[in-house]
Structures are given as C-alpha cells and as structure tokens.
Amino acid sequence: MLALMNPFSLYQSHVGGYSVDQLTPDSLSTVDALLDARRLTAILLIQADPTAVANHEATVRAFADRRRNGELTTIAGFGLDATGLLADATYWRRVTSLAPHGLRYAVLSVGACDELSESGVRSVLPATVLESGTDDWPHWVEVIEKGPAPVLTAPLRWPARVQPSVTGGLIEAARSEQVTACVSLDPATTDLARQADMIRLIGTDRVIVAPGPGQGIVGLVRELRCRRFTENEIESMISDVPRATLAATGADFLRPPPPRLPTALQRRLAQ
Amino acid sequence: MGHGELDEAEIVDHLMVLFDSAAKVSPGLWRRMSPPYEGLLKAVISHCSDECLRQELEALATGAHGIHRYMLEKAVAATGASTRLCGALEHVREACWVLPYRVPGPPPHPTKPIAEKPIAEKPIADQISDLHTRLAARPVRDAAVDLAFVINFRAVPAAPERLRNLLACLAGLDAQTVSRDRLRVVLVEQDAFPRHRELLADLVDTYLFADNAGTYNYAWGRNVGVRHGVREPQVCLLDADIVVPTDFAARVVEAFDRDVPGLVPHDSMVFLDSASSGAVVSALTDGAWNAGNLPSLSGYQLTEVYGGSMATTTEFYRRIGGQDERYEGWGDEDNEFYYHLRDHAPLRRLVGPIFHLDHPRPQTDADGKRINAGLLGQARYGDAEIGDLDRYRGAGR
After folding, report:
1. Could you tell me the pTM of the whole model?
2. What is the ipTM of this complex?
3. With the C-alpha atoms ordered A87, A88, A90, A94, is the resulting torsion angle positive or negative?
4. Which position has the higher pLDDT, B286 or A39?
5. Could you report the per-residue pLDDT of B285-310, keeping only the tens digit for each?
6. Which of A222, A230, A233, A236 to mutate to test the interface with B (most CBs of B within 10 A)?
7. How many interchain CB pairs under 8 A, A with B?
8. Bridge-partner residues for B355, per DSSP?
9. Are A3 and A44 in contact (CB under 8 A)?
C-alpha cells in the first residue's frame, strides 16, 4: 500500500497553527504510529512550503532510516510545488544525499513552474525521472506516470488545464489498487470540489485524510457533505492518528466516538 | 501555506471569546475548545512589541484583572502583520467548534423593513402575543404531508422565553418554502399539567400532553411524539428553541434516499444572543424571515454538534428503538442518539445553520461533570417500550 500524505499535517498537530518548527520526537512518533497502524510499506511526501526545508530534511532522514532498517520497502517521492525550492539546487543535493541507496524518486511539480525551477530540478535529478524539462504540464504528468517510480500526488496548485490528466492518473493508480490516497490539504490553494470528485472516484475506503489545524479539513468536510457523502464515509477516511493527536491538544476536528464504538481505523483493521 | 491578511478586528473578536461567559454555552464543549483560543492569546502576547501592554495581557491571561476590548485592539496592533498570529487564528477557525458569529444584516427591505428598534426591548410577553397573533392565521390542511415535525417542550412561567421560543419555532415552520399544508407538526408538552394546551393546540396538527412533573426527559418526549403523533414516513425532531431557515424542510425531504435513513439537517447551530433572538422574533412576526433578509445577528456558532434537529425515516426510528429514555435532564441525549443512528445506518449531514434562540441556560453539569456522561457507551435495554405516556404519570408530585 502506498500512502500519500502531507507531513505538514503531522507537524502542525503538535505545534499548532502554521508553525514550521523543527520536527519533534513526538511528531516522529506520530509518523511511526501512522505507519504501524496502516501497515504501510511506502510513503510519498508532499511538501509545499519553501520555508520548511528543515522539516522536510528531518522527515526524509527519518524515513530513510526506516527504510535502511527494512521497514519501508518501496519508494519515497517528493512532489514539490514551490518554485523557490525547485530552483534551489543546494536543497536538492541535501535531499538526495539523505536518501538511502536505491531510493527512487519521482517528482511531480504541481505549482508555478518556470525556467528557473526547471533548471534547478534538472541540475540535480536523474534524467530518467525527468525526461525533459518543460512547463507543459500534461507532458510532465505523462513522464511521471511512465517513470520508474509510479508516484502520483494529490496536487496542490494545479493549473485548471492539467487537472483532468493528473486526476486521471491518480484514479488509474487507485484502480490498480496500488494507492491509498491521502488528500493533501491547503485551504488557500486546494480545489476542494475536485478533491471531492477524486474521492468519489477513488472510493472512500481507500482515502486517508491526515489533516492538521488550518489545513482546510473543515472546508473539505463541508464540500463532501454538499456532495452527499455520508458521515460514516467521511469519518472512515479521516486518519485516526492525527485526530487522536489533535484531541490531546484540545483541537479535535471530529468528535471521537464513545468508548463502546470501535474507531474507524479499528473497524478497518478488524476486517 | 495560505495565510490571509492580518485582520485585526477579527483577531480581537476571537480573543474576546475567552472572556465572554456566553461562549461557554456548553461547558464540556468549551473545555475542549479553549486551548486554541488560549494559543491565540499567547501568540499575541509573544509578538506584542509594547512591553507594558504585554505585561497587562499576561496578567489578563492569569485572570488577574478584567478585560477591555481596547486593550486587545492595541495589543494586536502592536504585533504587526505576524504570520504566526494568522496561523493561530486559522487554528482557532479550523479546530474550534465555538466561533463568534456576526452577520451585519442586509440593507433595509424596500417594502418590508426590519424593525429598526431591536425587538429585544419589547417585553417577552409582547413578543409572545405578536407571534401568537401571526400563527393564529394558519390555513387549514388540504394536501398530502411530506414531513412530520416533532417538537417537545416545557414552558414554566418563570422562564417566559421558553414559550416565546416555541412560538418562534412554529412561526419558522410556517415560513418554509414547503407549504405548511405539507408539513405535520406534532407538539408534546411535558409538564405536570397541560399548561399551554389552550394556547397552542389549535396552532399545530397534533397536540400531546406527556404527564411528567419531575425532571424533564427530552428523549422520552420525542419518543412520545413519534409513537403517538406521527403517521408520515419521515420525521424531523426539532428542539423547541430552534428557528430554521426557510428552505430547511425542503432540503430535509430531498436529502433522504433509500440507503440513508438518518440525517443531521444542519452543520452549525448559531446561539443567538438576547438582542438577536428578539430580532429574529421580529422578522418572523413581520413575515420577513428568509435567508436573504436576515436581520443583523450576533452570537456564537457551534459546529459539528448533534443537538437542535435530527431527521429519520419513521420506520427506522421505531426499528432502532427511538431515543434512549434513560437520559433525564439536559445533556448527551442527542449525542447518544447520533451514535445510535450511526451504528445502524449511514447518516448524512446537511450544510447550513439553524438558529437557537436565547433563554436561561439549564443545568447540564453536576460537580463539573456532564449529567448523563456516565450513560454514554452503555448498552441500551433490549426491546424496551418507548414513548409510554404513563411512564411518569402521577410521579414527582
């Protein structure tokens, strides 16, 4: 199973708000708990904020360690939409130097793409991943789909003209049952309507939403309700671990069920 | 990440919540909601560039002295456009189920202006009279019924707001886009004697008296209404202090389908303050209650709550044993019912507010604990009879 997740949600569960402080041991514990609970074999990291380099680096290190220990067996990928990051060859070298041997990358840049960022990426990444630099979005998506690492993301800032292609690719991956999709949330940029469409197509039983405070979970839930998703479906896709973490900080999004009821996660694992 | 511009007034509005007892309408909910608000105050303190102000705020945070809005305004202004402040506000907006609510209201209606003078200045008795006069003109039924409403209440003279609110609730149903003829209203009065039968029986389709002189039992009252008053396939259980938007009934009817027999017909409940409650009553009395013509309103918006209204198919309600009548007094009966519904079938929640009118708050906590919290999670009795009209007859006197 491949989970797509936004590590920001995990940081913010602990530090609150939009703080991008260093990844804390607690945050790593949460990551571990999520991994264990979901019995995941791979993580795709989606990172969007160029100010979070330190966090990203720490996360990469954490996951790289796990992979060295044989706990993660597949791939990690980085979908970046921050022009500044993509242009920062130094940053990319740091990321790649952290990666364990054999770690395969796929990059899906879903944000503002210009020549500067393109050259930044191409300066450090293997040509096999990016066959050609271009801001032709559908072409980039095609490269990713055919690339060595079959990684797809729930993009953050995708131009309208590329959405069908990206969404279609994600749906294809979901149909092949390789992906459990976690919708990456950003209230300022995310197209909630299309996220809801995507969830409908993928199926709620294979969607995990791992939200953090201020990451648009309220908007997404509202959108799903408007589209006649049931409360049962919505609850089943909200990740239990971040929710429990949030509850501990007094900021739970959805009221935890009473003790006699198994959580959505427990129910799913019991099946 | 997407930070908005620093809206100082909005941040101050949210900070004021910490010091407003009205925000604690649900003590249990507030206990869980307060940390993000406290985080916002801490963020202001840590970013305030004025040392004197910062010290005052720190004293404020410890409860050392009272709050003045201007102090918060100055402090927020002294923080500058801090990203962290925006983040803390976003955190509150997303994580808190209790949020300040303020609607400025539309410009005056060209033909039917909202009363400029707040109706809250009218005595409650006058508001009751106005509403009753309007309701008395209800037309006679001659159409098939789409949806039944069950409303149960107790309105003692010491709290006249309860009767005012009930009449407003009924007026809200009169104002639906669905013709009143297509709605059945079942009213259950739960009291030592039928105190308001004469006043109310002609305003509703079915009036039921539930003899109970003791502790109010909300769940039982609803069960009585469904069992003895509802013949329609779908029923909406509505609190007696709720005014619903004019498209409420139409949306409830539309939202049912074969696989979803239960609904929470709202995703937020606006606890209106006293003046705003009066303004809503005024709008209802004047026939001006509709979504596009709301008066200026303020209060607190509670999200993700289960109380206020629920809707189910009548068959489903009966099949799962209705509401749990062990819940006496105020508290958690709606939560239990929600979980009970959800355990038995998919539920759907509709997006939109309902409006709660002001009244003296009942006791929901005892010794710092919710009255019925101990019952949550306990299995129900097997096939216990529900809605027995003799359950409390003669007791408590």
Report:
1. 0.71
2. 0.82
3. negative
4. B286
5. 988 887 566 678 889 998 888 889 99
6. A230
7. 111
8. B243, B270
9. yes
**H or E, element range at A259:** none
**Contact A188/B3, CB-based, under 8 Å?**
yes
Q: Is the pLDDT of residue A181 over 50?
A: no
What's the pLDDT tens digit per position in A72-82?
A: 333 233 333 33
Distances (CA, A) of A128 to A132, A133, A160, A260, B335: 9, 12, 27, 52, 55
Q: What is the pLDDT of residue B170?
A: 96
Token pair listed for A74: 């597949």
Shortest alpha-carbon distance between residue B52 and chain A (Å): 26
Inter-chain CB proximity B347 and A187 less than 8 Å:
no
Query: For residues A63-100, b (16+ Cβ closer than 10 Å) or e, as one string?
Result: bbebbeeeebebbbbbbbbbbbbbbbeebbeebeebbe
Give the chain A residue whose CA is nearest to the CA of B344. A232
A251 CB-side CA count, 13 A:
31
Q: Which helix (H) or strand (E) holds B189?
A: strand B183-191
Task: Spell out which residues of chain A touch residue B260, defining contact as CB-CB under 8 Å.
Answer: 230
Question: Do the beta carbons of residue B234 and residue B183 sit within 8 Å?
Answer: no
For chain A, the domains span 2-270
CA–CA distance, A9 with B338 (Å, rounded to integer): 28
Asked if A11 reaches chain B (Cβ–Cβ under 8 Å), the answer is no
Cα dihedral B187→B191→B197→B198 (10° resolution): -150
* Structural domains of chain B, ranges and CATH numbers in brackets: 8-96 (no CATH), 119-375 (3.90.550.10)
Query: Are the Cβ atoms of A226 and B36 closer than 8 angstroms?
Result: no
Interchain proximity B91–A49, CB inside 8 Å: no
Query: Would the CB atoms of B95 and A213 count as touching at under 8 Å?
Result: yes
